[in-house]
Known about the structure:
- Helices cover 16% and strands 42% of the residues.
- Strand 3 (28-34) and strand 4 form a beta hairpin.
- It is an alpha+beta fold and 224 residues long.
Amino acid sequence: MTMKLSEKTVNLLKNFASINQSIAFKKGKTLRTMSVMKNILAEAEVEEEFPQDFAIYDLNQFLNGVALCDSPTFEFPNESNLTIREGKDRKTKYFFADPSVIVSPPEKSIALPTEDVCFNLDSTQLQSLLKASAVYQLPDLVAVGEAGVVKLVVRDKKNDTSNEYSINVGLTDQEFNFNFKVENIKILPGTYEVVISQKLLARFVNTNYNLTYFIALEPDSTFG
């Protein structure tokens, strides 16, 4: 069986490599990954259909190898390796990893235990927050509900005189402080429907792509 990877899927895999350097592919069209700390899970439906299960230990290395080719074709001759082929003259034999050494998501899809706060986050807002975090060196992203407004704030929780950058993203009748680490917001640029559970888990659903992230909140989060 031969196949190609679209640019969209390659970009998705680059994003997944930032969550976990390894990945276990499953037969079919669904890609899933989970961070080693098990606090980020991502899953997406792609246009390609993978013909078999296989595991890649160093996904960035694999993608860099793919980038050596202008229009690579992937062949799956057996269960131990694949062939990355460029035309008739160039090819790479790439061996799979043992799936048992890779931290992978549970087989069963997860769901939020409750849905307590919802808002939309567009790509401009997301990039502004991440940029402000980098400029001011702020490690924390907080979803704050107060005075009827939901705002996202980047700040340093451990510093009472920390700089802050905030964006209003919605309305609420609840009061809460849902804390994330900025380093865990490893999501592709885009617009997201965000739902947060007081049980310390949030779901980010991309509105233009069949892509979902589940990100754990910090234990000092408060609701009500």
